[in-house]
Design a protein that fits this description.
Number of domains: 1
Order of helices and strands: EHEHEEHHEHEHEH
Structural class: alpha/beta
Shape: globular
CATH class: Alpha Beta
Strand content: 15-25%
Oligomer: single chain
Helix content: 25-40%
Length: 207
């Protein structure tokens, strides 16, 4: 069995404490839980970091390869050391575009889980078109939903997918969660650095 996980992180200035917690607390906990629940599954992790194309240009979106776990865990941990919060300008950010990149990942067949973390709203997809680095072939929100629902090509397996959105209420993310299947919305305090999020409670939503 294959189990792929994509972690999408808002890396704007307010998220520094959370990114440190993610690195030190969340990754070890999720790895321990997966080993317990998934047994001999082939597990892989991928990291996507986003900010705002309006202020960061081409540096607004960074994605890693898939790391085999536990074999490449030290390589992933090393890569995480270079993820620092900063920039982003004024809220909102390009989180929906980051979800697009996550959905278009080269998933293996099996279970496919996307974890998304932000303390801000999302700018409308396409609003940053024309900014440096903004992809010319980026979809719109309708296309994003069609990818998740299997109406557009991707490596997502409809029977194995799960999307966990950690974000403030009354944002593009809470609205999106109502329209997508196999999606869990976890409300967070806006501009609260996600300090209100308990990782143990969050991991319960995996299984």
């Amino acid at each position: 069995m294959n189990a792929d996980f994509v972690f999408v992180l808002d890396a704007t200035a307010t998220m520094g404490v959370f990114i440190d917690r993610f690195r030190r607390e969340f990754l070890p906990k999720v790895t321990e839980l997966i080993r317990e629940k998934a047994g001999k599954a082939d597990v892989r992790y991928k990291i996507i970091v986003f900010r705002d194309y309006g202020s960061e240009g081409a540096a607004a979106m960074k994605e890693s390869k898939f790391f085999a776990i536990p074999e490449e865990m030290s390589e992933l941990e090393h890569a995480m050391l270079f993820v620092e919060a900063g920039g982003g300008g004024d809220s909102p950010e390009n989180g929906l575009e980051a979800i697009y990149y996550a959905m278009k990942s080269d998933f293996a067949s099996g279970t496919q889980t996307i974890f998304f973390f932000t303390d801000a709203d999302a700018v409308k997809m396409g609003a940053r078109k024309g900014c440096e680095g903004y992809p010319e072939d980026m979809t719109d929100e309708k296309g994003l939903k069609e990818i998740w629902l299997g109406k557009k090509p991707s490596h997502i397996t409809q029977s194995g997918k799960k999307l966990i959105l950690v974000a403030p209420e009354n944002t593009a993310y809470s609205r999106l969660a109502k329209e997508l299947d196999n999606t869990v919305f976890v409300p967070a305090v806006k501009s609260g650095n996600l300090n209100d999020i308990e990782f143990f409670d969050l991991l319960k939503k995996l299984f």
